[in-house]
Amino acid sequence: MKVADKLQEVQRQIQEACDRSGRQPDEVKVIAVTKYVSVERAQEALEAGLLHLGENRDEGLLEKWDKLQGEPVWHFIGSLQSRKVKQIIDKVSYIHSLDRLSLAKEINKRAAQPVQCFVQVNVSGEESKHGLSPEEVMSFVEQLAQYEKITVCGLMTMAPLTDDEQTLRQCFKKLKKLQEDIQSREWPYAPCAELSMGMSNDYQIAIEEGATMVRIGTALVGE
Ligand SMILES: *Cc1c(COP(=O)(O)O)cnc(C)c1O
């Protein structure tokens, strides 16, 4: 199936989720996650009008950054090793996986310009997942004040892999509550207005619960 056709279906689902929750579709940015697919397929996504692309590994990002024709806005969505920061930092506009001070320090050291960062939160507490526990987030964000190249644009989470709607909603609601708590502090370096949540399996629910960026791979570019 063509990316353009899949995109139409995703846009229809976004519209419906927005209708159900009194939101506007232009409040929700779609990030096409191209980590599973070829350069050609990623090119097709760009041509279908998807401007925001996401990769979770430095190799994938560097290869596509090199070969794609056009100027996508790159999102780094995977866990990031400090020693990889140098290679990707001037190629990405957003990092969705800030989860420790040592990484913040490295980003601060390597970036030429302030970088839009999402603090990753492990809301569900699953051991397999990266991110801070909800209890740790506020003091972590507070400590980021010392790094002038870090802008905390929002919070990111990966929901548990389940079809249970209540579990998913609770997870997204909790992230939104944290985001609003941080936003209300009005720290200049942490506007924290964005919520990066929702993947192929759960983006409709994430949007109903306030997502401003959804990261969609399979449902958008899967073959
Ligand atoms: C792979 C990935 C996605 C997209 O997953 P799909 O289920 O294919 O939509 C989103 N976010 C992160 C962090 C990922 O690693």
Automatic annotation (TrEMBL):
Gene3D superfamilies: Alanine racemase. The keyword Cell division does not apply. Keywords: Pyridoxal phosphate. InterPro entries: Ala_racemase_N, PLP-binding_barrel, PyrdxlP_homeostasis. It comes from the Bacteria. The modification N6-(pyridoxal phosphate)lysine is found at K35. Pyridoxal 5'-phosphate (PLP)-binding protein, which is involved in PLP homeostasis. Belongs to the pyridoxal phosphate-binding protein YggS/PROSC family. This is Pyridoxal phosphate homeostasis protein. It comes from Bacillus badius. The lineage of its organism: Bacteria, Bacillati, Bacillota, Bacilli, Bacillales.
